[in-house]
Design goal:
The structure holds two protein chains of two kinds. Chain A is an alpha+beta fold. Chain A contains nine helices and 21 strands. In chain A, strand 17 and strand 18 form a beta hairpin. In chain A, helix 2 packs across helix 3, helix 2 runs parallel beside helix 4 and helix 3 crosses helix 4. By secondary structure, chain B is mainly alpha-helical. Chain B has a domain of about 180 residues: MetI-like (MetI-like fold, Orthogonal Bundle), CATH 1.10.3720.10. Chain B contains twelve helices and no strands. The chains are: A alpha+beta, B mainly alpha. The interface between A and B is medium-sized, with 28 and 20 residues.
Chain lengths: ~350, ~300
C-alpha cells in the first residue's frame, strides 16, 4: 500500500500564504494530476511531497507512513523536473546509476537495472552520451529513466512535458500513460495543461490561489465543474459564462444577463429559493449547435462575428444581444460573418455563490 | 580594385587604430626590451652587441635560480590556498542568510585595496617592535616579540599570507559566478536521488564548478607569477634572498645595479614564460571553457 495522503497542508513564504488547507488522498497505483494556472501552488505542493520544501502546517504520508520528518533521500520517491535536471558532466549511464550508487547498491544490480530501464525507454543507444548531445525529447526520456531505475514507491512529475514541442508532447503523453500502466506505481503529476490532465489522470486536483477547487475523475471535472473557476479552466475553447439573475413567473424560469435572456421551460422553486440574487450561467461551446433542434433545447438568435476553422471542427463566435457566445460546430456549414443565425443550447451549468447548483435538463 | 580587395582594405583600415594601440603600447616595448637584452649592459654610444650572452648568463646565475624557485613556491602555495579559500568563501556567500550583503561587501574589501597599501599595512602589522600581531600575541611580554619579516621562512610565509588575504576573494568571486550557473533543480534532483550534502558537493557541485575553478586558476597563477609590489614593500626580497622573486630580481638588476641588458633579459624571460603558460592555458582550459555545458 503505497498511496499518498496529504492532511491540511499549509505553506507560507514570509508573509505570503501559498497553500491553504490542502488535503487529498491517492490510492496505491493511482495517477493523480495537480492542475492549475501558474502560481497556483501546485509545484510547491509537489516539492512538499518530495521533502524539498517543508510545509508550514499539516502532514504528508506516503504508503501509510508519516514522512514529515523524513528527508528527501529517505522518502523513496523519484522526481522528474521541468528542465530535466540531468547531471551535465555525467553520461546517460552515469546519470541513471547516480541514485543507486549514492544509496550504495551493488554494481551488478545497478547494471541490471540500467539495462532494464534502457530497454523499457529504448535509450540503449544513448547510454554513453552526455546530456548536451541529446535532443529535448531524449533528455526527457533519460530524466524519466533516472526516476524509474530506482523503483521508488512514488513518482513525482513537475510539468515534465512543458519544454517539448507540441508533437513530441503528444507522443510522450501516450508513452507516459503506457509507462504508468506497466509500472503500476503511484504517480503525482503537476501540469497547467488540461489536455495532459484529462488524458493522464485517474483523478484531477484543480487548484487556484493555493486552494483545491475540485478533486474528481476527468469526466466529472468536465461535466460537473464545482465552481466557475473549474468550469472556465477546463474545456477548450473555454465555457461561455454569463453573470445575471433569475426570475420566476407563470411561464417558467427566466435568466437575465443584461439584454440577454434564457427562458427555461420548467419551474424550479428550490432553485429560485436558494437564489440570493446574482448567479452565473455557463454554456460549453460544444453544448451549443447551429443545426435546428427540438424543444428540448433553448434557442437564441444572434449574428455571426467570426469563424475559426480548425479542420475537424469550427469555432463560431456569435454576438447575442451584446454578449458573445462561442460555439463549437462541424466545419461543413457556410457561415458568412454578419449574418443572423439561431443557436440551440443543449446543456447549462449553473453556479450560485460560486458553487455548482444542479439544473434539471431543459 | 576588385570588390574583395576593397573590402579587405576597409577591414584593415577599421582595425588600424586598435592595431596601432597594440603596436605602440605592447609590441614595441616588448620588441625593444628584447633588443635591449641583446646588448651590453650600459646604454650609450659605447654599448656593444652581446647576442644571447645575457641569456647564457641567466642560465648560470645561482641568484636567478634561487629567485625562480622562490617564485615557483610562491605561485604554488598562494594559488592553492587562494582557490581553496576562494571556494570556501563562494560556498558561504552563495547561501542565503541574514546579513548576506554585508558579508559579501566585507569579503571584497581586501581585493579593493591597492596592493601597495595592503602590503604597507601587513608590514606595519608584522613589525617586530610596534606591530599589532606581536602586541596581540604577546601583549606586554616584549622579550617574546617575533621579528616576523627577519626570518627567511616566516618572511616568505608573510608574503604568501598577504597575497592570500588580498586575492582569495577574487578567486571566490569567480567561483561564485560558477556556482550561480548550477541550476537549483540539479541540486534538488541529487537530493531526491539520495545524495548526502557531501556527496552532492563531491559529485555534482565540484565537477560542475570545474570551468570556474580553471578560470580562477588561470588568473591566479599568471598574476602570482608577476608578484612584485608585495615583495617590494614588505621585504625588499630579504632577509637574504629568501623572498626575492624573479620580477623583483629583474627590477633590482635593472634599476639598482643599472645592468640594462641583463635586467631586460630577466624581464623578457618572465614575459616568454608567461606567454607560454597563457598559451597552454588557453589551449587546454580555454577550449574546455568554450564547450562548457549549457546551464
Amino acid at each position: 500500500m503505497a498511496g499518498l495522503e496529504l492532511q491540511r497542508i499549509e505553506k507560507t513564504f514570509g508573509r505570503t500564504r501559498v497553500l491553504h488547507d490542502v488535503s487529498l488522498e491517492a490510492g496505491d497505483g493511482e495517477f493523480i494530476v495537480l492542475l492549475g494556472p501558474s502560481g497556483c501552488g501546485k509545484s510547491t505542493l509537489l516539492r512538499i511531497i518530495a521533502g524539498l520544501e517543508a510545509q508550514t502546517r499539516g502532514s504528508v504520508s506516503i504508503g501509510g507512513q508519516c514522512v514529515d520528518d523524513v528527508p528527501p533521500p529517505d522518502r523513496d520517491i523519484a522526481m522528474v523536473f521541468q528542465h530535466y535536471a540531468l547531471y551535465p558532466h555525467l553520461t546517460v549511464r552515469e546519470n541513471l546509476a547516480f541514485g543507486l550508487k549514492m544509496r550504495g547498491k551493488p554494481q551488478a544490480l545497478i547494471k541490471a537495472r540500467i539495462a532494464e530501464t534502457a530497454a523499457l525507454l529504448e535509450i540503449h543507444d544513448l547510454l554513453d552520451r552526455k546530456p548536451r548531445e541529446l535532443s529535448g525529447g531524449q533528455q526527457q526520456r533519460v530524466a524519466m529513466g533516472r526516476a524509474i531505475v530506482r523503483k521508488p514507491k512514488l513518482f513525482l512529475f513537475d510539468e515534465p512535458l512543458s519544454n517539448l514541442d507540441a508533437r513530441l508532447r503528444t507522443s510522450m503523453r501516450v508513452e507516459l500513460k503506457r509507462l504508468h500502466q506497466r509500472l503500476g506505481t503511484t504517480m503525482v503529476y503537476v501540469t497547467h495543461d488540461q489536455t495532459e490532465a484529462m488524458t493522464l489522470g485517474h483523478a484531477i486536483v484543480v487548484m487556484n490561489h493555493g486552494r483545491i477547487q475540485q478533486i474528481g475523475r476527468p469526466e466529472q471535472i468536465y461535466h460537473e465543474p464545482a465552481n466557475p473557476f473549474v468550469a472556465g479552466f477546463i474545456g477548450n475553447p473555454p465555457m461561455n459564462v454569463f453573470e445575471g439573475s433569475f426570475r420566476l413567473d407563470q411561464r417558467g424560469l427566466e435568466f437575465r444577463a443584461g439584454e440577454l435572456t434564457f427562458r427555461f421551460p420548467f419551474q424550479a422553486r428550490d432553485l429560485i429559493d436558494a437564489d440570493t440574487g446574482m448567479a452565473t450561467l455557463g454554456v460549453r461551446p460544444e453544448d451549443v449547435t447551429l443545426e435546428p433542434q427540438g424543444s428540448e433545447c433553448i434557442a437564441i438568435t444572434g449574428t455571426i462575428d467570426l469563424v475559426e476553422n480548425l479542420g475537424n471542427d469550427s469555432i463560431v463566435h456569435l454576438m447575442v444581444k451584446g454578449q458573445s457566445l462561442t460555439v463549437r460546430t462541424s466545419p461543413g456549414l457556410r457561415l458568412p460573418a454578419g449574418e443572423s443565425i439561431t443557436a440551440y443550447v443543449k446543456n447549462f451549468h449553473l453556479f450560485i455563490n460560486e458553487k455548482r447548483v444542479p439544473l434539471p435538463s431543459p | 580594385m576588385t570588390k574583395s580587395t576593397q573590402k579587405h582594405t576597409t577591414g584593415w583600415l577599421m582595425a588600424f587604430p586598435a592595431l596601432m594601440f597594440v603596436a605602440v603600447f605592447s609590441l614595441y616595448p616588448a620588441m625593444d626590451s628584447f633588443l635591449l637584452s641583446l646588448y651590453s649592459d650600459f646604454p650609450g654610444p659605447e654599448r656593444s652587441f652581446a647576442g644571447f650572452g645575457h641569456y647564457a648568463e641567466l642560465l648560470q646565475d645561482p641568484v636567478a635560480h634561487q629567485a625562480f624557485i622562490v617564485t615557483l613556491g610562491f605561485v604554488l602555495l598562494s594559488t592553492t590556498l587562494e582557490l581553496l579559500l576562494g571556494t570556501g568563501i563562494a560556498l558561504v556567500v552563495h547561501e542565503r542568510f541574514r546579513g548576506l550583503g554585508w558579508v559579501r561587501a566585507a569579503v571584497l574589501i581586501p581585493w579593493a585595496i591597492p596592493t601597495v597599501v595592503a602590503a604597507q599595512m601587513w608590514r606595519f602589522l608584522l613589525n617586530d617592535q610596534y606591530g599589532a600581531v606581536n602586541a596581540i600575541l604577546f601583549g606586554d611580554r616584549v622579550e617574546a616579540y617575533v621579528p616576523w619579516l627577519a626570518d627567511p621562512w616566516m618572511a616568505f610565509g608573510a608574503i604568501v599570507l598577504a597575497d592570500v588575504w588580498k586575492t582569495s576573494s577574487f578567486a571566490g568571486l569567480l567561483v561564485l559566478a560558477g556556482l550561480q550557473l548550477i541550476p537549483e533543480e540539479t541540486h534538488d534532483a541529487a537530493r531526491v536521488d539520495g545524495a548526502t550534502a557531501w556527496q552532492r558537493f563531491r559529485h555534482i557541485t565540484l565537477p560542475m564548478l570545474k570551468p570556474a575553478l580553471l578560470t580562477a586558476l588561470l588568473f591566479r597563477t599568471i598574476d602570482a607569477f608577476r608578484v612584485f609590489d608585495l615583495v617590494f614593500v614588505m621585504t625588499q626580497g630579504g632577509p637574504g634572498d629568501a623572498t626575492q622573486v624573479i620580477q623583483f630580481y629583474g627590477y633590482k638588476t635593472l634599476f639598482t645595479e643599472g645592468r640594462v641588458g641583463y635586467g631586460t633579459t630577466i624581464s623578457v624571460t618572465v614575459f616568454v614564460a608567461m606567454a607560454i603558460l597563457s598559451l597552454f592555458y588557453v589551449r587546454t582550459v580555454g577550449s574546455k571553457l568554450l564547450q562548457r555545458e549549457p546551464a
